[in-house]
């Protein structure tokens, strides 16, 4: 038995994982800074802001008080968007326990003095052993899993014994979790595919057809592969659920926030609006500069991500940018 759990973040994915575990009989508390989310659960047994129409386990606890949320917890599940994790780590420091088992379900990077993978950043900030930090990722839409539709995911970490325990902990008959010791690759899949998904949404909104969509996924997967290999990821991970699987899902559905953001950009919606006023977390935009920085650090060419940077931050017309990408120097595959 791993013990009581806390999910740090009451968005759609954090709430879904908390609900999944609670239905299995686990003791789970959800912490969120949003008071309306706590009140909604207490009054209606729902999180209608992020999971409308889904009745949640009555055994769950929601709270705004971080100290209470982490008290006597062994399993700590990090579900906050990556841009909020630095402030969360600062708030957690007075309460941290060295024996916490931390599972990151956020897909993102931290860009401060340098680019940090989330596991490395949490290890540094909270002084928790790297052996106690894990990452769960895969082609997982929260709205589908919360409605008991089947899905697969991957959990990665260095401690194989604990990895197997967590694999069992998160798995249900409809949510199958694979184990993986390549925590670098599993963490990198999410940020890299999110950027490609923005491009997929743009292509769809501009009516450029299925041929170019298929080409984008193919070349995008190669772009991901180059960076991930340079950073030490394994091929099995690159072509697994957390990378290729997540890429296919996120680039093929308007349910993806990043795909949706690409559609909005193609329609002329500003980046500033998407970041500050849309009410959605667009990790692909949040992590774009970090990915470009990584590509330079590891001397890896990322033409799709670089093209997107010019569109998102350089105010270049999407159609013009795509034509420039199509007219790059011809190469062998």
Q: Briefly note the CATH topology name of the largest domain.
A: Rossmann fold
The first-level CATH class of the largest domain is given as Alpha Beta
Tell me the strand percentage band: 5-15%
Number of strands: 10
Enumerate the strands of the largest sheet in spatial order, edge to edge or round the barrel.
3-2-1-4-5-8-9-10
Q: Measured on Cα atoms, how large is the radius of gyration?
A: 19 Å
What is the overall pLDDT average?
A: 94
Unreliably modeled segments: none
- Distance from N terminus to C terminus (CA atoms, Å) equals 50 Å
Q: What sort of overall outline do the alpha carbons produce when their principal axes are compared?
A: globular
The class by helix and strand makeup works out as alpha/beta
What is the H-and-E element order? Answer: EHEHEHEHEEEHEHEHEHHHHHHHHHH
Q: Could you give a short account of the major beta sheet?
A: 8 strands, mixed
CATH level-four homologous superfamily name of the largest domain: NAD(P)-binding Rossmann-like Domain
Number of domains: 2
Fraction in helix: 40-55%
The total of helices stands at 17
Gross CATH architecture of the largest domain: 3-Layer(aba) Sandwich
